[in-house]
Amino acid sequence: MTTSAPRVLIVQHEDSVSPDLAGARLAAAGVETAMAGPAWVPQDSRDFDGVLVLGGTMGPTDDEAAPWLPAVRHLIRDAVDTSTPLLGLCLGAQLLAESTGGRVHVNPRGPEVGVHDVAFAPEADGDPLFGRFAGTRKAAVEFHWLEVAELPAGAVNLAGNAHSAQQAFRVGRNAWGTQFHPEALADTVDRWAHSHADLASQAEEITAQARALEPELAERWAGLFDAWIGVVAKRSADADR
User: Fold this and answer.
1) Spatial CA neighbour of 87 closest among 206, 225, 230, 235
2) Paired strand residues for 11
3) Diameter of the chain by CA atoms?
4) Within a 10 A sphere around the Cβ of 198, how many other Cβ atoms?
5) What is the mean pLDDT of each run of 10 residues along the chain (241 residues)?
């Protein structure tokens, strides 16, 4: 029996926020990808083995500024309902929370920008993506002004820190969100930091920090994406039987 390559839909909200490391790992694994975004968002996930939802500068309910967001939230709910593997990054995690009964607000502690430690909870033990990190602290790129204030009912909080309690979480069986940016390496941090006027005084320091830690960040979070791709591949193989 011939097994087709897994197919992943990537939801990209803005050109400046691209798949980066996640895209590289998908390509290395031979995964077929399709891009969704402002001009087109499918009604459901049935044609795909996985859905990757990227970040963006808008909030998860900024429908007037980003009129495609209701379609993205509908797509996310469908993926959760059908157990289609889904991974939401930053805004993608906030959309996952909002779509399934959680709540997002402006972080009262202000923005979290740069490389910061994230503490993985004991509850991460056994998780297909984050189990290897349970009980540890790991550096990750952060770039957010909003945060998930309340998780959906039944969701499992997998990681947090002093700035945002919900840094990684799982909804249902196959949907994950990260408030941090595992896909972002130094060049991405440099681009984002220099694009924000209010970060001008910090841009060089933030970029240098990410550059110094890039080998560590790349190795660690490539493993995260590879683990998610493994979940996607299993879904694809099961569908081919």
Assistant:
1) 225
2) 36, 53
3) 58
4) 8
5) 82 97 98 98 97 98 98 98 98 98 97 97 98 98 98 98 98 98 97 88 94 98 98 92 65
